[in-house]
Amino acid sequence: MATIQVRDQKNASIGEVQVTDAVFGRPVRRTLLHEAVVQDQARTRRGTHKTLRRGEVSGGGRKPWRQKGTGRARVGSTRTPLWRKGGIVFGPQPRDYSFSIGRKKQKHALQMALTVKQSDSQIVVVDSLEIEAPKTRHVAALLAGLELGGRVLIYEPEGTEEFQRAARNIPRVKVVSGYGLTVHDLLLHDWLLTSKDGIERIDEALR
Fold it and tell me: What residue ranges do the domains of the chain occupy?
């Protein structure tokens, strides 16, 4: 069993919380982490790119010239892909880029990402994430009191809309809750900030 220090909002140590080695001490496979990150990125791609095929380009309904006798190559439409302003052959079409790597592999990748954070001492656990009021300045004061700089990922177990609204205007700070924790977010951010209840929920869900 590994232990993580628990602090108050003034960055004073007030105890420890135990976490299992199966979640926070798992052997790390870089290939699986890479696969999970690619899956997370592919899932967020909109895939709305679109080019017009020959039949979708406006115009070109009349044959430019007669078939024979002009000395020029035969052509049936000014929207042929060989011509300027013509259709595009094999161009990108709307598609879904998401794919699945399996639930067990996704779970193991999350465990490995948390292990990386734990080994680098980049997990900060506070007794409570409660703020006086849903104001951006209170979240900023919380981060300043904990001396957290760079990119900060906050796991707020309750998923309160007030806390998320208060933190969304702070640059390089992201708030997730529930099952919103991803491998990409864990590896992208410099710090994982959560409450004692939050770290226990993560440990229990991924055990």
Answer: 2-45+99-206, 47-96
- Percent of all residues in the chain with a pLDDT value above 70, rounded to a whole number: 100
Beta bridge partners of 124: 193
Render pLDDT for 141-165 as a digit per residue (tens, 0 to 9). Answer: 999 999 998 999 999 988 788 889 9
How far is Cα of residue 61 from the mean position of the Cα atoms in its chain?
A: 46
| CB distance 54 to 87 below 8 Å | yes
Q: Which DSSP string do the residues of 38-72 spell out, in sequence order?
A: HHHHHHH---------TTTSS---S-SS-SSSSSS
CATH 3.40.1370.10 holds for 2-45+99-206: yes
Q: Which residues contact 149 (CB under 8 A, 6 or more apart)?
A: 190
Cα–Cα distance between 137 and 18 in angstroms, integer?
31
pLDDT of 5: 94
Query: Which segments within 123-201 are labelled E, that is strand?
Result: 123-126, 152-155, 173-176, 191-195
Give the residues across from 18 on adjacent strands: 3
64, 82, 83, 156 from 59: Cα distances, Å: 11, 15, 13, 55
In angstroms, how far is the first alpha carbon of the chain from the final one? 12
Tell me the per-residue pLDDT of 94-142, one tens digit each, with 9 for 90 and over.
Answer: 999 999 999 999 999 999 999 999 999 999 999 999 888 899 999 999 9
**Three-class secondary structure of residue 121 per DSSP:** coil
